[in-house]
Design brief:
This protein is an all-alpha fold. It folds into 2 domains: 132 residues, no CATH class; 143 residues. Helix content is 59%, strand content 0%. The two termini are 14 Å apart. 34% of the residues are buried.
């Protein structure tokens, strides 16, 4: 079997095992229909205004490292930033703050953090987040409407490895977004050619030899796109099936497990998948 044919077979088997493993989980409330619901984005909640897209960006931007607890958790949710960030209108934010992150942080501290002392070094999370917030506003303010923004994304959307150009461009344009978060930003806007190469996907793909051991976020992303192509599905779907195993979080279904959480099944799945892949390889060698 050629290396290309072997890769196709490995990719298809790994994805089939992921779905098989999820369907076999014995968890209260977890049904096949629930799992299948995660194959597609919730397009009903797709942002319809630039303000909603900007809020979506701000939520995405806090998802790096420990930011959700430090940013949204500290103020009762990122939505509260609307009081400071002009109801999330990007152009108004640019006109109000420009690139003055210190002024933005002062306003956040005064109005939302009850004048609590926070770290203000360049590597501290709040100053970094403020830079991302203003950078994101400057980027989105370039677009005259939501339609113009989506037309721009659509012009760069692809169903192969070339789609990496779009998150790469976003990661360069917007401070603090990074390639993985740029992918997540696009994926959760409903663009199914994108997947987030997060820690769960990385761990599983490395363990099952679906990507190179030295692969960075870009390399893991390309591996996800390849698996999706070989399985005749979307990168979004591949992302979600492996992510549900790794995170154990069915965020759309609070009736599953403990308010949607069933605990990570990542290591158990890796052991299961490795055993199944080795067995099938041995059976193939003996036939």
């Amino acid at each position: 079997m050629s290396s290309s044919a072997q890769q196709i077979e490995t990719d298809r088997l790994a994805y089939a095992l992921a779905r098989e493993y999820l369907f076999a989980l014995d968890v209260p409330g977890l049904t096949r229909d629930v799992i299948e619901a995660y194959r597609w984005p919730d397009n009903e909640s797709r942002p319809e205004t630039l303000a909603q897209i900007y809020l979506h960006f701000l939520v995405t931007a806090q998802n790096a490292n420990m930011r959700p607890g430090v940013i949204g958790g500290a103020i009762g949710g990122v939505e509260k930033l609307g009081a400071v960030l002009c109801d999330f209108e990007p152009l108004a934010v640019v006109e109000k703050y420009g690139a003055d992150t210190d002024r933005l942080l002062d306003d956040i501290v005064d109005q939302l953090l009850q004048n609590r002392e926070i770290r203000r070094t360049t590597r501290s999370l709040w100053p970094q987040y403020c830079r991302a917030a203003l950078s994101g506003a400057q980027f989105l303010a370039q677009f005259s409407s939501t339609e113009a923004f989506y037309e721009w994304v659509d012009s760069l959307d692809r169903q192969d490895e070339r789609c990496a150009a779009l998150p790469l461009l976003l990661s360069k344009e917007v401070h603090g977004l990074g390639f993985a978060l740029a992918c997540d930003f696009l994926k959760e806007l409903g663009y199914t050619n994108f997947a987030k190469p997060d820690v769960h996907l990385r761990d599983i793909f490395l363990a099952l030899s679906l990507c190179d051991p030295t692969a960075d976020d870009y390399g893991v992303f390309k591996a996800i796109v390849r698996v999706a192509r070989h399985c005749a599905t979307t990168s979004y779907e591949v992302d979600k099936m492996f992510w549900l195993i790794g995170s154990g979080y069915f965020y759309r279904h609070e009736n599953v497990g403990n308010r949607g959480r069933i605990g990570s099944r990542k290591q158990a799945f890796i052991e299961y998948a490795r055993a199944q892949m080795n067995k099938r390889q041995n059976d193939s060698d003996q036939s």
